């Protein structure tokens, strides 16, 4: 699911920097007690590394609290890849750290056999 933003109606957003930015980040992370919202939704407990913008500032999103969510680094990489249309995320792993390639040894079931397929 991807949201579209009418960039023509929104002005470029300047995010808070310095002390004000740190305070804002701390307050936002406190909303989920410092945990990743996406992992929480899946029953996982992982510390959030990033306060992410749901609609990226680069795509005309606002810097309001309602437009932010707390994410761990794997989740952040994943949603960023989705938002900006990359085929796969940076390190080739999913949010659980499992390799995405189907022929990766971790994803192979049973023995490889090494023989020919009929
Ligand atoms: Zn996460």
UniProtKB/TrEMBL annotation:
Residues 1-27, 97-118 are annotated as: Disordered. Residues 1-17 have a biased composition (Basic and acidic residues). One of its GO terms (molecular function) is endonuclease activity. Residues 23-77 form the HNH nuclease domain. CDD domains: HNHc. This is HNH endonuclease. SMART domains: HNHc. Residues 18-27 have a biased composition (Basic residues). Keywords: Endonuclease, Hydrolase, Nuclease. Gene3D superfamilies: 1.10.30.50.
């Amino acid at each position: 699911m991807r949201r579209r933003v009418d960039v023509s109606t929104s002005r470029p957003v300047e995010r808070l920097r310095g002390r004000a930015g740190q305070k804002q980040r701390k307050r936002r992370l406190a909303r989920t007690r410092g945990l990743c919202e996406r992992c929480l939704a899946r029953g996982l407990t992982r510390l959030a590394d990033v306060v992410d913008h749901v609609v990226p500032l680069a795509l005309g999103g606002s810097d309001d609290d309602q437009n932010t969510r707390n994410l761990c680094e794997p989740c952040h990489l994943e949603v960023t890849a989705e938002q900006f249309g990359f085929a796969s995320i940076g390190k080739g792993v999913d949010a659980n750290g499992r390799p995405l390639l189907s022929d990766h040894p971790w994803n192979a079931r049973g023995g490889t056999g090494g023989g020919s397929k009929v």
